[in-house]
Design brief:
single chain; mainly beta; Immunoglobulin-like; disordered N terminus
């Protein structure tokens, strides 16, 4: 039995684990004696008169005259060791671009790993990378990677996004084997239009080089990086001797044309199963001045974006889906500061979409006898624009604006056939303004404002936030915080009632030790009961006061049979903001390591969650005193990942959460299980497969039940007793299976074919029901017989053939297949193969599209004409 004694034992283990991690003397926690000191190495760039021909061979005389950057230091897995096989890098520049040439020496030709991948993907391959920090603020930077196969990847670095691989630039590179075969070389051309820098007679930029030798799972950097020091950009070296650089006119246009064929088997008279459409538009980039760039998308087309991983959502919170639309993922580091921008709000489902299908008597918009004829599920984006940049004084400025068209649903009277339109979302303008000032010692202060303005009398929303991070001179301690204020004023859509959460606030403070083998922090935050940033952001539950303490101890040098060790433990506590009521307290710990010889990575985590009160599950205002008691529980998890260098590799993740018996109600014990198996097989350097199986089981979970009564119909006395402010709960068994198969075939470093199929099944079977009353009381309802069982099935295929026929230009052919069912009541079944058959036999939507983008750069076009 899971008892108080078991809880005490787990707490003692956690405390012993934390004390063990801090028992080592501070002198022994540092890197070994041969670890490099914090330095900033320098290399001078060499100006040239004529451009370099990119062929991967460093045979031009200009390369031989340039200063050499070498003597790299190991970064992973053994920080501080000198490289055994040398790397040599040289930098040239002219009035239009910067050129980087690098030679990577190897023991033999077969020591170089050369798996072909799609752009922006690193597989089982060697690579060389250059990183630039033109403003030398030690916070923001660019990364340009070239694989030994010639595949490119580019990244942005910022405090808000960390390493952002969604950013894409237009640049060029070539690779070639060294003449003796013992190594490879690369030439990179980075046009100044791809980066931003200030106007100055003489400049010094932040600079870093990195080399990966996949054969030994090693990474080396030119300027030594100490993993015990907080930050990455702040540990780069310097590029000197940049003279008379003039930021160019950055003007480019990327027009597109696309064609779609869509087929859905309506098989109804008057409805076409197959439809076609043609689209055209463009993306525009204009360098307003040396620091700021305008990005605009005109009549955008996101029809080829990968499908969302749809899930059955039983929680009181919305599902947050990742952003896959390029315009909203590239160059958004300023707009993501403070966590106020959830870009999926733009072009999302209309705010009044669900109300259309509900009768007016139940608070909806549908009159009696009407049915929904057409109801668009997304709003149409008319245009979006970004202006962003950073001045020579370190002030970052960003302005984002997007406009979506008004959306209407069409409903029809079933008797007369008369149709009418219902506004589901008015014309809407989304706006963000950001000011971000870089400060010395990796510090900053920021001011962000988000605004949503809607046409008509529908409410508008505004959120303003201030952020700061202050770090001491030694980069040892940091104090950070945030203060937000939200405003929503006006009437609810298609209503005369004003919204109730008009003004609210949030603040968060964090202080801790950020560098060294041993780090820690304490934090505290409040979100008021009326704080709501959801018109352009996302929030999972307000009305909350929380605080926590965390400590971590990491060993970065090999010992025993492992390369490293990462550990963490902490305590968290929260209570309701209004009224001031206890919510929960918890303890957690984790550890992971990588073995020296096998490079197998394994770890575990434990979370102890004593008895807590869930004020969100009842879906009622907490002032009514409604909450669900959740019994004490312990979550135990572990994972294993094998060496990805091998043809056959795997990832395994498993977890179990047993709950204590609920002594208040005679009810079977709650349990939750989870298992993920993900084997991958590399057939060759061109073809690979990956299969992922996810299984989750929740037994005797108690959760909110949406009874869905039709108040326009007569109801018996039993149901009348339920129509009180009390909440209906259900004890249920929830089982979820997800199968995903991905295959990739890469023809060349510019042509690839990807395939991804995902099948998701989640079924809910209710075992009993209870009435929830204020103060957490539950009354069993043995006579309640309504069937609330649910089965949700989703199936998607995304296949794409992509050819990058020129820098920034591509042709893509995409096939998307989507199908699914949602079954309620007695027809729902928890049986896997019955759900699988239902998914296969349901109608599927098939969409085939072709899209052509062509990148036009003003300077390139002008030089060709000249």
């Amino acid at each position: 039995m899971f008892s108080a004694l078991a809880l005490r034992r787990v707490l003692w283990l956690l405390l012993s684990f934390l004390l063990l991690g801090t028992a080592e003397p501070l002198a022994a926690q540092s890197l070994p004696a041969n670890a490099p000191a914090r330095v900033r190495r320098q290399v001078a760039a060499q100006r040239i008169a004529a451009p370099i021909k990119l062929d991967g061979l460093l045979d031009e005389a200009a390369w031989q005259a340039a200063p050499v950057a070498g003597r790299f230091t190991e970064y992973r897995p053994h920080p501080g060791h000198a490289e055994r096989l040398p790397t040599e890098v040289r930098i040239l520049y002219d009035d239009a671009a910067m050129y980087v040439g690098a030679k990577m020496i190897e023991a033999s030709p077969d020591s170089i790993r050369r798996e072909l991948t799609q752009r922006d993907n690193v597989g089982n391959t060697d690579f060389f990378a250059i990183f630039l920090d033109p403003y030398r603020d030690h916070l923001n930077g660019y990364g340009f990677f070239v694989m030994s196969t010639g595949v490119q990847m580019d990244t942005r670095y910022s405090p808000a996004n960390g390493e952002d691989g969604a950013w894409n630039a237009v640049w060029d590179s070539r690779v070639a084997p060294l003449p003796d075969g013992k190594g490879w070389s690369v030439e990179i051309r980075i046009p100044y239009s791809a980066i931003r820098f200030a106007q100055a007679p003489v400049q010094t930029w932040g600079l870093q080089f990195m080399r990966q030798r996949k054969r030994d799972n090693q990474q080396f950097t030119w300027n030594p990086i100490n993993p015990a020091v907080d930050g990455f950009v702040n540990q780069w070296g310097e590029l000197t001797n940049l003279e008379n650089l003039h930021p160019p006119l950055r003007l480019s246009l990327t027009p597109y044309v696309s064609a779609y064929v869509n087929h859905y088997p309506y098989n109804e008279l008057g409805k076409q199963n197959a439809t076609t459409s043609f689209n055209g538009g463009a993306d525009l980039k204009w360098g307003i001045n040396e620091s700021f760039t305008l990005d605009a998308t005109l009549i955008p087309d996101f029809g080829q974006t990968i499908s969302d991983n749809q899930v059955l959502n039983l929680s009181p919170f919305e599902v947050q889906y990742p952003e896959n639309r390029p315009f909203f993922t590239e160059g958004t580091e300023l707009f993501n500061k403070g966590g106020l921008f959830y870009s999926r709000r733009i072009g999302a489902q209309p705010m009044g979409f669900a109300d259309v299908s509900v009768l007016q008597a139940q608070g909806g918009l549908l009159a009696k006898g009407e049915f929904v004829y057409q109801n668009p599920g997304v709003t149409r984006l008319l245009n979006a624009t970004k202006v962003s940049g950073r001045t020579s004084k370190g002030l970052g400025i960003g302005v984002f604006n997007a406009v979506s068209a008004a959306s209407y649903a069409t409903v029809q009277d079933s008797l007369s056939g008369r149709q009418r339109q219902i506004l589901t979302q008015p014309l809407t303008n989304y706006n963000i303004v950001v000011l971000d000032q870089s400060l010395p010692h990796n510090s900053y202060v920021s001011l962000i404002n988000t605004n949503v303005t809607r046409g008509g009398q529908t409410y508008n929303a505004n959120v303003t936030a201030g952020l700061f991070r202050l770090v001491d001179k030694k980069n040892q301690h940091a104090f950070s915080g945030q203060l937000n204020y939200s405003q929503r004023h006006g009437l609810a859509l298609n209503s005369e009632a004003p919204i109730d959460d008009q003004n609210g606030y949030k603040y968060y403070l964090n202080y801790g030790k950020i560098s060294g083998n041993f780090t820690w922090y304490v934090d505290h935050g409040i979100e008021s009961d009326t704080y709501n940033p959801n018109d352009l952001g996302i929030l999972f539950g307000n009305n909350n006061v929380s605080q926590s303490v965390n400590a971590s101890y990491n060993k970065y040098q090999p010992f025993w049979k492992v390369n490293n060790l990462y550990t963490s433990a902490g305590i968290y506590h929260s209570f309701l903001f209004k009224p001031l009521l206890y919510q929960n307290t918890g303890f957690y710990g984790s550890a992971n390591t990588t073995f020296t010889k096998s490079f197998l990575t394994t770890g575990f985590n434990v979370n102890v969650d004593p008895l807590r009160r869930d004020f969100y599950e009842p879906r009622t205002a907490p002032l009514g005193g409604y909450y669900v008691w959740v019994p004490s529980s312990v979550n135990l998890g572990a994972f294993v990942s094998s060496d990805y260098r091998k043809k056959l590799a795997y990832d395994i993740n498993a977890g179990i959460r047993p709950y204590a018996l609920d002594n208040r109600v005679e009810r079977p014990r709650r349990l939750a299980y989870g298992l993920t198996l993900s084997p991958r097989y590399r057939v060759s350097d061109k073809l690979n497969f990956r299969y992922t199986f996810d299984y989750a089981l929740k037994v005797n979970q108690m959760g909110y039940v949406n009874d869905g009564f039709d108040l326009t119909q007569p109801i018996d006395q039993f149901y009348s007793a339920l129509l009180t402010p009390d909440v209906l709960l259900g004890r249920r068994r929830v089982v979820t299976y997800t199968n995903t198969l991905a295959a990739n075939y890469t023809f060349t470093n510019r042509i690839s074919l990807t395939f991804r199929a995902r099948h998701y099944i989640s079924s809910v079977h209710y075992l009993s029901f209870a009435r929830l009353s204020p103060n957490g009381g539950e009354e069993n309802l043995p006579g309640y017989f309504r069937n609330h069982d649910t089965s949700f099935n989703a199936f998607n295929i995304d296949a794409a053939f992509v050819w990058w026929f020129a820098p920034g230009s591509q042709v893509s052919l995409v096939w998307k297949n989507a199908g699914g069912t949602s079954i309620l009541g007695s027809e729902a079944t928890p049986l896997y193969f019955d759900n699988l058959a239902s998914t296969i036999n349901t109608a599927h939507n098939n969409n085939v599209s072709v899209k052509i983008l062509y990148y036009l750069d003003y300077l390139t076009v002008r030089s060709r004409r000249g």
